[in-house]
Amino acid sequence: MDSRFFIIIILLLLLAGCTDALVYSEYKATSNGVWDRDDVKKFELSSLDTIHSHDIYIMVRNDNNFPFRNLFLIADIQTPDDQIIRDTLEYEMALPDGRWLGKGYGSIIENKLWYKENIVFSSPGVYTIELVHAMRQNGQAEGINNLKGITDVGIEIERREE
C-alpha cells in the first residue's frame, strides 16, 4: 500500500476523532482589530442537547497591537426562560515578559479561555451569550472605548466526556 495513502487515512481518522466533542463554534470579527466598548458580541444557540454536560469556552484572537497582559470581559448568558447569568471575567493573555499565552502562527494568537464547566442546558430553546470587554487603564475609572489588538471573539461549546 502506498505510504501517502496510509498517512492520509490516519490524518482523516485523527481529525474525525478530534471534532466529536465540538457542538458549537462561531466567531465574530471586530472592526479592523479594534473592539469598541459598545460592540456586544452576541451568540444565539439553539437545538442544544438538554441531557449531557458541556464546557463553554470564550475564544479570543489577538495580534501584537493588544497592549495588555490581561483581558477583562463581561459575559451574560440568557436562558430560554429569560434568566440572565452575568459574570465578570479576567484572563491572562501574556506572561510578564510579554510572550503570548495563546497559540498561533504569524501575528495572530488564538486563546481558548475557560468560561463555564460541566453545564447542562436544561431547558430547550434559544440560549444567548453576550460578550463585551471591560478594559480600563490602571488608575482610571472610565473604561477604554476602543480596545486595540482584538481581531475576533468567539464561543465554542464542547460536549463533556462522561
Please summarize what this structure is.
This protein has 162 residues and is mainly β. It has one helix at residues 3-18; strands spanning 22-29, 34-36, 41-45, 54-62, 70-78, 84-92, 109-119, 127-133, 146-148, 150-159. It is 10% helix and 46% strand.
What does this protein look like?
The protein has 162 residues and is mainly β. The protein has a single domain, classed as Jelly Rolls (Sandwich), CATH 2.60.120. Helices cover 10% and strands 46% of the residues. It has a 4-stranded antiparallel beta sheet, with no helix packed on it. A 4-stranded antiparallel beta sheet has the order 3-8-5-6, with no helix packed on it. It has a two-stranded antiparallel ribbon with strand order 2-9. Strand 5 (70-78) and strand 6 form a beta hairpin. The model has no long low-confidence stretch (mean pLDDT 90).
Q: Which key terms come to mind for this protein?
A:
162 residues; single chain; four-stranded antiparallel β-sheet; Jelly Rolls; mainly beta
What is the strand content?
over 45%
CATH class: Mainly Beta
Q: Note the main sheet.
A: 4 strands, antiparallel
What is the average per-residue confidence, as pLDDT, rounded to a whole number? Answer: 90
Under CATH, the topology can be stated as Jelly Rolls
Q: Which secondary-structure class do the elements indicate?
A: mainly beta
Number of helices: 1
